[in-house]
Amino acid sequence: MKKSTLYYIWLTLGIGFCSTKVRYIHKLYSDISKLYEGSEQELRLCGVFTEHEIDKLLKTDLSAAEAILRRSEELNFKVYDISMAEYPDRLRQIPDAPAVIYVSGELPDFDSINSVAIVGTRKATVYGIKTAMNLGINLSKSGFAVISGGALGIDCAAHKGVLQAKGTAICVLGCGIDYNYLMENKDLRDAVARTGALVSEYPPGHPSSSHNFPQRNRIISALSDGVVVVEAPIKSGSMITVDFALK
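^ that's the sequence the OP posted. Answer follows.
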């Protein structure tokens, strides 16, 4: 694990998730530790942080980031920050690229494979479930990695299709990978981690919340060459993923 990861976790603890400032900091500092070591003067000179963010960063000790890294190691999660070669370049290109991603399983090389996101409603019809599963099977057999969000309904059906075809399933979560959310999907998540990867920008133990999932959807669209909405209301998280994909 690179030293830079510790400081990018510290940055996230200070300014939060889904910030457009991460890419700026990444471009400005080849060694992000200089930002931390420069203390208040450096935080002000870089010209990007609000007074609230500066205050939060100054009060955030590295020990909190160290605890997250230790917990990740205990859980056998891989942790990639935006400066690392293992971090997908296509994810690095979006305006609000995550500073850090946590991975259980093996992250494929998204920059050299084809990938499709399959998303849709939790309240799927029988037809929707069947369609999502068949798409997962057939895309996997055609060599695509298939990405979804692990929710009940369309997401689960897509993941199950990929697993049936022995393809590469990627599940992007809106909480810490180990967080006790939707545990009725635990066996499915474990299977995805064995054959593909569980991915989250949230550290171990981070709870789910209503605003996490729209944020999570930008990662699903960024990792995908295309997004397929199988079945969803006009106002839904799936259509938020479409908006991200169009952008």
